[in-house]
Amino acid sequence: MLFLFSDLLLIASKCSVSQFRAHLALPLHSLQLLPSDLPHSFTLSGEDTCVVVTAGSAAEQAGWCDALAAAIERARERPTHVDTQLTPAHTDESSSGGGGAGGALTFVCWHRAASLTRQHLNLAMRTQLSGYLLRKFKNSHGWQKLWVVFAAFTLFFYKSWQDETPLASLPLLGYAVCAPAPEDGIDKEFVFKLQFKNHVYFFRADSHFTYTRWIEVLQTPMLH
C-alpha cells in the first residue's frame, strides 16, 4: 500500500488483521517517475532506490502517475529536508479498525486493491445522504425497512433515525450501482442494485425523486 503525502511517499504492507508495516519513506524531491515495460506499471527511481509499482488497472495507473508527477514537481519547487528514517514505532503502526472513517477506508482499499485520491477523500467528506429504504439481499424474499446513511463512501444501517449505533455498515469502494436485471426477478418500482463481485444488495425507495437522488449520490468516482 502506498501513502502519498506532500513531501514523501510511504510504502507499507499488511502485517496483521488491523495493522500495516512501513517499509520505505521516499522524499519526493529526489524521486524520478519513469515508465515501465510491465502492464499498468511505472518506476520510481531515487538516490539509492528503484521501485516498480503495478496498479490494478490502466485508470489507477494514470491516476497514480498524475498525482505523483504533480507532487514531485511541487516538492522540487520547495525542497526541504525530509526525515525518512523509520523507527520501530513507525514500522508497525495501526491504520485500520475502529479508528474512524479514514482508517476503515484504508482497510477496505487494501482488501479491494483500490486507490483513494485526495479528491476522493474531499468528496467523501462533502457527500452525504440519509433516509428510509427497503433492503433486500440477493437470496432473500422479504424487504427490511431501514434508516440508511451514506457518508465517507459507506452505507450505515439503522432501525430508525433515532438510533445512535448502526446495525451494520457497507463500504462501497468498488461497488457498481445500477437497475436490477431481468434475471434478478425484481418486479417492484424504484429499486436499485449494488454489486461487488458476488455481493449483491437491492434497495427500494418510496418515490421516483428519492430513487433518483440516491442514484445521483451513489454514482461517485469511487463506484465503478
Automatic annotation (TrEMBL):
Record flagged with keyword Signal: yes
Presence of the UniProt keyword Signal in the record: yes
InterPro entries (UniProt xref): PH-like_dom_sf, PH_domain, RAC1-GEF
Annotated ranges, domain PH: 1-73, 126-223
Chain residue ranges for the region called Disordered: 78-99
Keywords assigned: Signal
GO molecular function terms attached to this record: guanyl-nucleotide exchange factor activity
Pfam families the record matches: PH
PROSITE patterns named in the record: PH_DOMAIN
Extent of the signal sequence: 1-18
Protein name: FERM, RhoGEF and pleckstrin domain-containing protein 2-like
Species this protein is from: Papilio xuthus (Asian swallowtail butterfly)
